[in-house]
Amino acid sequence: MTIVSNVSNTEETPGETPQMVEPPPLDVAAVVVTYNSTRHVGALLDSLPAAFGGLTYSVLVVDNDSTDGTPELLARRSDCTVVRASNDGYAAGINRAVLASPGASTVLILNPDATLDPDAVPRMLEVLQRRPGAGIIAPRVREEDGRLSPTLRRGPTLGRVGGLSFTGLPVFTERIEILGEYKSEHEVDWAVGAILLVDRRCFDALEGLDQSFFLYSEETDFSLRARDAGWATVYTPRAGAMHVGGGSGESATTHTMQMLNRIRIYRRRTGDVRAWLYFAMTVVVEVRRAVLGDRKSWTTVRALLRPSIRPPQLGASAAFLPE
């Protein structure tokens, strides 16, 4: 495990037995979950020393049963601790990594296909410490080609189920694409979870990420539950990062998981009546996408209408309305 810290000597009184001094908690525990991530995780780890600046930190990677050589790649590195695990999902991997990390006042959640700019973490930590009630900090993220990555999101509503981002109207748009929203520090409903700095007290109060989502929506759920408990998610443009996206691949199955989890989180927050409307509107949206040529959406439509063929990892096959 990479642990960077300053060690100070203590004076001993002659004749006295030296006392062991418990080391203070680190500033940050960085946690990464990999799954077939050989193309990207090396660049992430290479970026971390400069990204942490003078902070004390640890780096722990949980590998979710990769088959592409990721464990072997990680084993050759000396800048992280690796925990090999069965693939219980992304949220379970993050929770496992946090529990296995040494004590730290904050948790830095990182996707393996991200890289951080120099001093990104101290800048995020400064925001967390300066703003009362802040529990989650999201940086400014760019795409691989340098363009802004629109990572900020509004909370889910019936009006936003269609993903009508082209309208630019907040009532219809969950994804925030207004450039001006990325120029200043402010609170948001939630942000894409590729790079998030979390106050450890917030993480513990919420008992970590909800593992029932397996993949996708865990950061949505976490930020919204944090807000319910009085912790704000804050965006800062002063800290920078790059996120490739889709580092572990995208398929009809993962797209189906994403759509089912959106329904599940909406149901859990609003109740069955409104969730039925959200479910019906999701079916309509996916049929439209399929007709327009997105073949993944046909798989999603079938899974929405036939619970028995839904991805078993979600545990959402017992009822027609995903729960």
TrEMBL record:
<feature type="domain" description="Glycosyltransferase 2-like">
    <location>
        <begin position="31"/>
        <end position="155"/>
    </location>
</feature>
<dbReference type="GO" id="GO:0016740">
    <property type="term" value="F:transferase activity"/>
</dbReference>
<protein>
    <submittedName>
        <fullName>Glycosyltransferase family 2 protein</fullName>
    </submittedName>
</protein>
<dbReference type="InterPro" id="IPR029044">
    <property type="entry name" value="Nucleotide-diphossugar_trans"/>
</dbReference>
<dbReference type="InterPro" id="IPR001173">
    <property type="entry name" value="Glyco_trans_2-like"/>
</dbReference>
<feature type="compositionally biased region" description="Polar residues">
    <location>
        <begin position="1"/>
        <end position="12"/>
    </location>
</feature>
<feature type="region of interest" description="Disordered">
    <location>
        <begin position="1"/>
        <end position="23"/>
    </location>
</feature>
<dbReference type="Pfam" id="PF00535">
    <property type="entry name" value="Glycos_transf_2"/>
</dbReference>
<keyword id="KW-0808">Transferase</keyword>
